[in-house]
Amino acid sequence: MPNHGELPELAAAVLQPGFAGATAPDWVRRWLGEGLGGVALFARNVESPAQVAALTAQLRAERPDVLVAIDEEAGDVTRFESRQGSSRPGNLALGAIDDIRLTEEVAHDLGCDLANAGITLDYAPDADVNSNAANPVIGVRAFGAETQLVARHTAAFVRGLQAAGVAACAKHFPGHGDTSVDSHHDVPLIDRDRAQLEECELVPFRAAIAAGVQVIMTGHLLVPAYDKELPATLSRPILTGLLREELGFDGLIVTDGIEMQAVRRRYGLAGATVKALAAGADAICVGGDHADEQTAVLLRDAIVAAVRSGELPEERLRSAADRVRRLGQWTTATQTATGARAIADAAPEVAVLPHAAGVGFDAARRAVRVTVAEGAAPLPVDGPAHVVEFAPPRNIAIGAETPWGLGTPLDELLPGTTSVRLTEDELGADPAATVLDGSAGRPLVLVVRDVHRHAWLADVLNGVLAQRPDAIVVEMGVPETVLGAIHIATFGATRACGQAAAELIAGTRVPAPAPQPLAA
């Protein structure tokens, strides 16, 4: 006879809920004693590395092998550095450089920071092939649009991160790149046959598996080649048939945020959770929006009820819980072996890198590409500039609190630089006049993100450039469109990317040092 008395503990083991606050709330600490397998940290939980280390120490005091996860892509999507912007350039910049050794070094550097703060699982790297330039949610988060390039950098990122003792998580299986729909809002359709998927989307995931990736995250994607009805997160043919049996992955499968509308709208939080586990998922990520104990109770009770009703086989739940515990043991053993130690337990003086120093900033400098038309005035500029940053609708995966742009770093290098940020609605009846206001007699820098996806932005740029052909255009998104006599592509909008472009414009850029060997 099954021992149903264990079910609440098993159900808690497969949850990775979020919570509010910079310290562990009582309900989370209590749940850890009752079997909770992991938690997910978001920007709201991060104030500083030392504070995160103290938080994770609280969690680990209740359960030493708890999985502490964070969605830290080391690019535009950053949680660990959400308050100041990432000190690393992000995937697209690393793909543009195409130095797998550098990618591994950047990932290892990130892993060391996370491990020293007590984080054991990073929902990275993004292994999507951004083959659709209209993609509204991947873009600079991908290493690029070329399959083999994405595959080799995905594998390098996995190796670097895990060498530091942090479990890597390749996402969003089986591939979110060829879509123009954001799964936060609706169900994207990946309308490719199996041969096409095998030649493109699946290649980076095979590379991640070959590199020993510990975790793979599901995408809330409809892939009719494998399942005509259910999104991948809820599909047994995709998670068990394709990922487990065909690709041979034996690590942990975690869902993308289960509250995302692509699965929640039709199935509800509880229904999507049960279906995901039945399909082959091992852990449920929740709490980006629903960061409370009531949500955790709802999901735990739904899992228990599904087992008792026969909807979810008990052996499937036990297998999922076993994988969670196994990963917890791996992270504990690996971080011990690599010598990671929480900052809170370290010496009072924590080493802090100088401003704009480190492998991430060096990588951002290497990524910058400049296109100069014949006859254009050369860089650097000859005095304080006026910077206009255009703000298209935000990619929801990128935290609203995360700073970006060029105004601040350029003002630090060229004091007296002024800046303004404009949305489409703020441009008024005469957009060119609005943009040019305040720029007379000084260099003009126009900062854009993904101009190819926003017709209004291309129109405004063309209108402004007709009057100020000397303006410098800085593209901090995917550089599909090149406009202006001087065009600078940073391949991301992180703090490191902004610093690299500002140095180039101001003429203070220094050569990056030669890469050093990875720490043993």
From TrEMBL:
Family: Belongs to the glycosyl hydrolase 3 family.
Upper classification of the organism: Bacteria, Bacillati, Actinomycetota, Actinomycetes, Micromonosporales
Keyword set, alphabetical order: Glycosidase, Hydrolase
Organism, as annotated: Paractinoplanes pyxinae
Pfam families the record matches: Glyco_hydro_3 (PF00933)
GO molecular function, a single term: hydrolase activity
Residues covered by the Glycoside hydrolase family 3 N-terminal domain: 35-327
The protein, known as: Glycoside hydrolase family 3 protein
